[in-house]
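Reagents: none. Just compute today. WbqC family protein.
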Amino acid sequence: MTAVVITQPMLFPWPGFFEQLMLADSYIYLDDTQFSKGSFTNRIQLLRGNDRCWMTIPLAGKGSFQKISELTAAGDDWKASHRALLRQSLLGAPFIDDALSIFDNVYRHSSLLALLIASIEEPARYLGIGANRKIEKTSEMDVEGTSWQRVLDIVLEAGGTRYLTGHGAANYLDHEAFEQAGVQVEYMNYSRTPWPQTVAAFTPYVSVLDLIARMGPEARNCLIPATVAWQDFLKEETVTP
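Predicted 3D structure written out:
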């Protein structure tokens, strides 16, 4: 069976995303959809002392009414400030140099789309994830349409028989239509495996760079990918208070 994952390009995603990536035979960047303000496309959380803070790429025109592939950053000053913020966040971590090296490799890109894609590919390479997966961008695929129908058509175009997705898709997918088309929908069952942090209460919802800086080559051991069939996922969602 061919497992397909489709997500928007994102800035240094949280570790749970990489569990999803580990299961993908075909990974597709949804780069021709409209940018959504407040999404994780251009921002991610970092630890700062006992709290969290946002690291956000400022967008020209605030990204209004633009496709992700068309986004441009407002100026260049944010690159230096981001590095300083990340370094402060990771100060004292045993593998901080590994994380900063990944950051530097990513931030050398002048194209914002290339930078966002590298924000996924560089950490994945460090973690030894998905070297053999097929990588595509929807902007280079001839698949029109909207909502779940386009998602299904993209999966079929990629030769997929399994579609692995995050939890938000439960709000709009027509699961029966996927089944009828021969595609099995599975939702991620994120492990949220703890790693040493500076905060009193562990949080998995920070950049993967935090995991890499604190665990180094052992970071992959905190990624335990698993999925649940859509029928079981929706059943659990229904009974959860």
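The two ends are 35 Å apart (CA to CA).
Action item: order primers for follow-up constructs.
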